[in-house]
Amino acid sequence: MAVTEITAQLGRSDKPAKSASNTQGRLVPRKVQFDWSETPLDWIPGHPFASAFINEINLILPAGEFWFCRLYNKALPYVTDPKLRDDIQMFMRQEAMHARAHAGAIEGYLKQHGIETERNTRIMDYLFETMLADQPFGRKLPKLLEKQWLLFRLGIIAAIEHMTCVLGKYALENKHWDEVGADPVLLDLVRWHGAEEVEHRSVAFDLYQHLGGNYPSRYYLACIATPAVFGIWVDGAANILKQDPRFAAKKPSVWRPWIWLEWARTARTGQLPSPLWLIFLKQLPFFSPWYDPVKEASTEQALAYLNSSPAAARVAA
């Protein structure tokens, strides 16, 4: 046998290459159906502030999640790992259903209770269709920068998906809502969505790393995304609260201490996550060089809820 052949055989490994995907099994896109006809505006009884705060999520998500889908479609041609490619395709189908479900809540629930939603949704549309568009602020990027702009935005999504995983786990484990008799339909929306966020928690991070995202860029992107997301959330919640006579005198605003203090006070009742816990403590893992989304939540816990979700069962039946 030639020396070159022996050398080639010795250098060859029979060990299969490690997949870029860290997602357990195959993701499942689930169709859901919600009946909003009986859901009260204060869907957490006795907690109008917490109800409004969670309701703002319905206004944030549709534009953002459709943007995720558009961006991931652009990223697909660069993906060389078959399992990760399938994860991304299933992720997009889940995210599209999330967007449609929350858009349905806007039309069938919030607007039916007289909530003005256009101001908040207009901000989200501007953010994703103008600021973070393929041509930001209408300016065409040089060809050399297109992939870097794509990777920058994928890093933003990875940071956001860590936050949604944390919130999803919180929703699955928060029994205080059940104890006070929270509306089962909106509770199912929050938990169904949260469970799928836990289920696909690794996809955004896996894609970002697969396409060359590194720790320093992930760190600074998280520094941008974290305050932006929570600022938008509080600002939108303030606009809903302004429309409620019970809070109008407080003049709710993201810039006024009252809303942050009321958030912290309400969190002590168990109806909202504590701002210090959520914004600081639970975001710290993403800033670590050793961050691993797999360790952030339990797929088994998520699947256990998804297998019993009334909205998913309604469509299956």
Q: What labels describe this entry?
A:
single chain; 317 residues; mainly alpha; 13 helices; 0% strand; disordered N terminus
List the helices and strands and how they pair.
Elements: H1 3-11, H2 48-75, H3 82-110, H4 118-131, H5 143-173, H6 176-179, H7 184-199, H8 203-210, H9 215-242, H10 257-267, H11 275-280, H12 299-306, H13 310-316
Helix pairs in contact: 2-3, 2-4, 2-5, 2-9, 3-8, 5-7, 5-8, 5-9, 7-12
Helix and strand string, N-terminal first?
HHHHHHHHHHHHH
The total strand number stands at 0
Largest sheet: none
Q: Which spans of ≥5 residues are poorly predicted at pLDDT below 50?
A: 1-13
Strand content: under 5%
| Strand-pairing-aware structural class | mainly alpha
Would you tell me the overall average pLDDT?
94
The dominant shape is globular
Task: Give a description of the structure.
It is a single chain. With 317 residues, the protein is an all-alpha fold. It has one domain (45-128, 145-316). The chain is built from 13 helices and no strands. It has helices at 3-11, 48-75, 82-110, 118-131, 143-173, 176-179, 184-199, 203-210, 215-242, 257-267, 275-280, 299-306, 310-316. The radius of gyration is 21 Å and the shape is globular. Residues 1-13 have low confidence and may be disordered.
